[in-house]
């Protein structure tokens, strides 16, 4: 029983990390039809910004996390304005450009700080463990789960209660009609990119808690499973991404423990294939 509880909490924490990356990715693809392969690099930027701020920057963890999130948000806005916006009518060039950025940014981080993983400073309050149903669970798992729930709630409120949220929802359904009504969807595009970058950068900052370190390729590794989550949840669906993230995180942890190490990744691919056979549009296939 203790093992099951520990695996469940660890899987939920990993799923929360996947959701932070996949939620923005899902919105960006759902509204803008942009496959942003540089999304993982935004996570790495946020992770390294938080790591630097918590260490050499002298800010401490609690200020380093919002600092890393802010830096990642700025990087996402800059990416959309400078690189993505001129290529909206050229989807193939978009893919090539974002792939290039996704490779260049980790290489830049590697050139500045090296390829070795850097220990992530953790506050004493989050470095301990708690007992849950007899299992000893690291506190940082609950921090990740709490952060993901807050992001999910914030995104749902944004999409349902704000003007730009309604524009995003309408743009996912019929972008041509929104444009015909005289609404400047370019601002919505930039805003969605900023939201996606913020969520990814927050995930990068908190990934340091989960893994205990940061490295240049961290975002690239998480991006693969983020794409799996987006496809499983249904492109453009935040709720679907949340459900799929939980499923992927739990399947990975339990499969890795009860089978051979590494089979967790294969189990996720099998789960994706089965789901697409049953529901080709994913769990929801809509924005909600």
UniProtKB/TrEMBL annotation:
Location(s), subcellular: Cell membrane
Membrane-crossing segments per the record: 12-30, 60-83, 95-115, 135-159, 188-211, 223-250, 257-278
Bilayer topology annotation: Multi-pass membrane protein
Source superkingdom: Bacteria
Main location: membrane
Pfam families, per the entry: BPD_transp_2 (PF02653)
Keywords, alphabetical: Amino-acid transport, Cell membrane, Membrane, Transmembrane, Transmembrane helix, Transport
InterPro entries attached to this UniProt entry: ABC_transp_permease, BCAA_transport_permease
Family recorded in the similarity comment: Belongs to the binding-protein-dependent transport system permease family. LivHM subfamily.
PANTHER family: ABC TRANSPORTER ATP-BINDING PROTEIN, BRANCHED-CHAIN AMINO ACID TRANSPORT SYSTEM PERMEASE PROTEIN LIVH
Name recorded for this polypeptide: Branched-chain amino acid transport system permease protein
Organism listed in the record: Kitasatospora paracochleata
